[in-house]
Design a protein that fits this description.
Length: 217
């Protein structure tokens, strides 16, 4: 049977119940889902990111907020391309999944999640992102982080893992998540310190945040 893009995308939403994710975010606050996204839609997303990267549409990611926003490659060396709402294709399907998750999380957690902001990111070889919180002491509206990885045949020797510190502090116990095509990781943005270790090859991802209404600048 021919696998159409639609089939791949529909499968995605049959695979993991939003409830499984909601339970994990309530319970431990984080979850890693290997093979969440089938290869076909992953490829479509990566090709989209690669085309924009090749066209020079990415820019160096900033750190800090408002006036303090600046680029500092000793903190993070990734390049990003912010995403708009997609009309069709795998990006639209992923956004629809996230929207479903947003509604489920609001029912379960009363988080008042209001919107999803996301970007493609690429870490050129050697680039990293030092240990940080996505929402430092509640100073941003980001409440849930979702990172979807887009790299086929990633080997542990390629490094570039996300190191997620699981005990609520900036050290101690951690899990390493390799940026393998189709892996999705979600965590509560204000609770989990994490870092991206330098990779030996180009590392693509689609990173987004569910945010509360309003933004803190
Ligand atoms: C980030 C981040 C993790 C990753 O963009 O804030 O921590 O694995 N990304 O790409
Ligand atoms: Mn982060």
């Amino acid at each position: 049977m021919m696998m159409t893009m639609e089939t791949g995308v529909e499968n995605l939403f049959g695979r993991v119940d939003a409830e499984v994710i909601v339970d994990a975010l309530v319970d431990t606050g984080w979850i890693v889902l290997p093979e969440f996204l089938p290869l076909e839609p992953v490829r479509e997303l990566r090709e989209q990111a690669q085309a924009q990267w090749a066209a020079g549409e990415f820019h160096a990611a900033g750190i800090g907020r408002g006036q303090a926003l600046g680029v500092d490659e000793s903190v993070r060396g990734d390049q990003v391309q912010w995403l708009e709402r997609a009309e069709d294709g795998s990006l639209a399907a992923y956004q629809a999944f996230i929207e479903d998750l947003r509604l489920s999380l609001n029912q379960a957690l009363y988080l008042g999640l209001f919107e999803f902001e996301s970007h493609f990111a690429v870490y050129p070889p050697g680039a990293f992102y030092r240990r940080h919180l996505d929402n430092f002491r509640g100073t941003s509206a980001r409440l849930v982080t979702a990172v979807l990885y887009l790299n086929e045949d990633w080997k542990e020797a390629d490094c570039g893992q996300l190191r997620l510190y699981t005990n609520g502090s900036d050290g101690g116990e951690y899990v390493d998540v390799f940026p393998q095509a189709g892996t999705l990781v979600l965590f509560r943005s204000s609770r989990f310190w994490h870092e991206v270790l330098p990779a030996r090859r180009e590392r693509f991802s689609l990173t987004g945040w569910l945010r509360a209404r309003g933004s803190v600048v």
